[in-house]
C-alpha cells in the first residue's frame, strides 16, 4: 500500500538533522494515536523538527515523522465493504489542520471529488485495503494525499471518525444518496447483525426507489 517514507520516534534522543535529510528535507510530525490533527506540525529545519517532536510527545509516546507531500488532500468513507464517494478538502492553510477542520470558514469540500475515473478507482481500492489491513470493520474513514505527479499516498485510517451532520462521513453518504438517519441505521444494522454488506444493500434500496 502506498505511504510516504516515514520514521517512528519514541523520544527526543535522535539526530534531527539526519532524520530530516533522510525524509527529504521537509516533514509532517504527528502523534500516532491522536485525532483532529491535534499535535501535528510541519518542520523544515532541525530546530523545527525538534520542537515539533517535543510538541507531539505531549499527546502520545509514539510519533510519526513523514515526508511532506505537496498536493491535494482527500478522505474516503468506508461502510462495511462499501466505499463511499471521495471527499476533497481544500484549505488556504498550510495543511488541513485543526483550525481548517473546525474553526475556519475558508475550507472548501468537494464531493464527489473532481478526479479521473482511474484515480477514483485506485484510491478507493487502496483505502478499502488499508481499512481491512489494520483490522477495522463496520465503518470508518481513510485519509489520502495526491501529489503533483498524480501519485496517491495513504495518510491514516480513522476508526472513530466524526459523526455529526456536518462531518465528512455523512457528507460522503449524502453524495451516495443516504440521509444522516439512514447512515446511522445502516451502521447499527451492520453492528448488530455482524454483517459487512448493509451499506451496499442500503444504496441498492435507494437506487430502486429513484
Write up this protein:
The protein is α+β, with helices and mostly antiparallel strands and 210 residues long. The protein folds into two domains: 6-67, Dna Ligase, domain 1, CATH 3.30.1490; 71-209, D-amino Acid Aminotransferase, Chain A, domain 1 (2-Layer Sandwich), CATH 3.30.470.20. The protein is 36% helix and 24% strand. It contains seven helices and ten strands. It has helices at residues 16-22, 46-56, 98-102, 117-133, 168-176, 180-193, 198-209; strands at residues 6-9, 27-31, 41-43, 63-67, 71-79, 82-83, 87-90, 108-110, 139-147, 152-158. The strands form two sheets. Strands 5, 6, 7, 8, 9 and 10 form a six-stranded antiparallel β-sheet that branches. Strands 1-4-2-3 form a four-stranded antiparallel β-sheet, with helices on one face. A hairpin with a 2-residue loop joins strand 5 and strand 6. It starts with 5 loop residues before the first strand and ends with a helix. The model has no long low-confidence stretch (mean pLDDT 87).
What's this model, at a glance?
The protein is of the alpha+beta class. It contains 7 helices and 10 strands.
Tally of separate domains: 2
Q: What is the N-to-C succession of helices and strands?
A: EHEEHEEEEHEHEEHHH
- CATH-defined topology of the largest domain: D-amino Acid Aminotransferase, Chain A, domain 1
Strand residue content: 15-25%
- Using the 3D structure, state the CATH architecture of the largest domain: 2-Layer Sandwich
Based on DSSP secondary structure assignment, what is the total number of beta strands?
10
Amino acid at each position: 500500500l502506498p505511504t510516504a517514507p516515514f520514521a517512528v520516534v519514541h523520544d527526543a534522543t535522535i539526530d534531527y538533522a539526519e532524520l530530516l535529510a533522510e525524509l527529504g528535507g521537509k516533514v509532517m510530525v504527528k502523534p500516532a494515536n491522536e485525532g483532529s490533527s491535534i499535535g501535528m506540525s510541519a518542520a523544515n529545519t532541525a530546530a523545527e523538527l525538534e520542537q515539533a517532536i517535543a510538541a507531539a510527545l505531549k499527546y502520545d509516546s509514539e510519533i510519526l515523522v513523514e515526508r511532506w507531500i505537496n498536493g491535494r488532500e482527500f478522505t474516503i468513507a468506508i461502510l462495511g465493504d462499501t466505499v463511499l464517494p471521495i471527499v476533497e478538502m481544500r484549505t488556504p492553510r498550510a495543511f488541513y489542520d485543526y483550525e481548517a477542520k473546525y474553526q475556519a470558514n475558508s475550507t472548501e469540500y468537494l464531493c464527489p471529488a473532481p478526479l479521473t475515473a482511474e484515480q477514483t478507482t485506485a484510491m478507493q481500492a487502496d483505502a478499502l485495503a488499508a481499512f481491512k489491513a489494520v483490522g477495522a470493520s463496520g465503518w470508518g474513514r481513510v485519509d489520502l494525499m495526491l501529489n503533483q505527479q498524480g501519485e496517491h499516498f495513504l495518510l491514516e485510517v480513522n476508526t472513530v471518525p466524526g459523526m455529526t451532520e456536518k462531518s465528512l462521513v455523512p457528507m460522503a453518504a449524502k453524495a451516495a444518496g443516504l440521509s444522516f438517519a439512514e447512515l446511522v441505521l445502516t451502521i447499527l444494522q451492520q453492528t448488530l447483525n455482524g454483517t459487512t454488506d448493509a451499506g451496499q444493500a442500503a444504496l441498492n434500496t435507494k437506487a430502486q426507489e429513484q
